[in-house]
TrEMBL record:
<dbReference type="InterPro" id="IPR036271">
    <property type="entry name" value="Tet_transcr_reg_TetR-rel_C_sf"/>
</dbReference>
<keyword id="KW-0805">Transcription regulation</keyword>
<keyword id="KW-0804">Transcription</keyword>
<dbReference type="Pfam" id="PF17932">
    <property type="entry name" value="TetR_C_24"/>
</dbReference>
<feature type="DNA-binding region" description="H-T-H motif">
    <location>
        <begin position="22"/>
        <end position="41"/>
    </location>
</feature>
<feature type="domain" description="HTH tetR-type">
    <location>
        <begin position="1"/>
        <end position="59"/>
    </location>
</feature>
<dbReference type="InterPro" id="IPR041490">
    <property type="entry name" value="KstR2_TetR_C"/>
</dbReference>
<dbReference type="InterPro" id="IPR001647">
    <property type="entry name" value="HTH_TetR"/>
</dbReference>
<dbReference type="InterPro" id="IPR050109">
    <property type="entry name" value="HTH-type_TetR-like_transc_reg"/>
</dbReference>
<dbReference type="InterPro" id="IPR009057">
    <property type="entry name" value="Homeodomain-like_sf"/>
</dbReference>
<dbReference type="Pfam" id="PF00440">
    <property type="entry name" value="TetR_N"/>
</dbReference>
<protein>
    <submittedName>
        <fullName>TetR family transcriptional regulator</fullName>
    </submittedName>
</protein>
<keyword id="KW-0238">DNA-binding</keyword>
<keyword id="KW-0678">Repressor</keyword>
């Protein structure tokens, strides 16, 4: 039941927006009573917390496995970048909801939203920092800015990517990964 409620809430939050989706809307779309919905989730904030936490946990678990691979950091960053793109494209409703929930007005109300992306960002930032310490990447830009810039562009994918355009998820992931790695390898301009 919880899985079904999360799936319906995710779809409605993505389609209509968080503020324009009521608990009644979720209950109606899930073909349950509002009372049953309240048995599982105390309110919309709790439901949104659960949606964001589920998506963030899944993404962070994948990134953790990528980061632990016994391969050079450049290969792990490439894999992490391609995975972020694949997740954003294959789970566009999750990406849209998490991105919308990250707005300060929403995040202030929802505890899990504030923390939902933290573990993922920390893991991704650690990969970039490792590459910078090893000399594989430039240190011109702080790792946290690189991560925020990259993830911002990935979150934007759900607004334009359509499989019918002839670009596969793998193709888009490779382009994004190449762009990230090119930026990280950029040599300092001559003084």
């Amino acid at each position: 039941m919880r899985r079904r409620l999360l799936a319906v809430a995710t779809r409605l939050f993505a389609e209509r927006g968080i503020d324009r989706t009521s608990l009644r809307d979720v209950a109606d779309a899930a073909h349950v009573t509002e009372r049953l919905l309240h048995r599982h989730y105390a309110g919309k904030a709790a439901l949104l917390d659960a949606v964001c936490a589920r998506a963030a946990r899944r993404d962070a678990d994948r990134l953790e496995r990528i980061a632990a691979r016994p391969v050079p950091v450049v290969e792990r960053v490439r894999a992490a970048a391609a995975d972020a793109v694949a997740a954003a494209v294959s789970e566009p409703d999750d990406t849209t909801v998490v991105f919308r929930a990250y707005r300060p007005a929403v995040a202030e109300r929802c505890r899990a939203v504030r923390a939902a992306r933290h573990r993922y960002r920390v893991l991704f930032r650690a990969l970039i920092a490792e590459g910078q310490r090893s000399g594989a990447f430039t240190t011109q830009v702080p790792a946290d800015i690189v991560v925020d810039f990259f993830l911002g562009s990935v979150h934007h994918l759900s607004t334009w990517y359509r499989p019918a355009d002839g670009r596969s998820v793998s193709d888009v992931g490779s382009v994004y990964a190449d762009q990230l790695l090119d930026a990280l390898r950029a040599a300092r301009p001559a003084a």
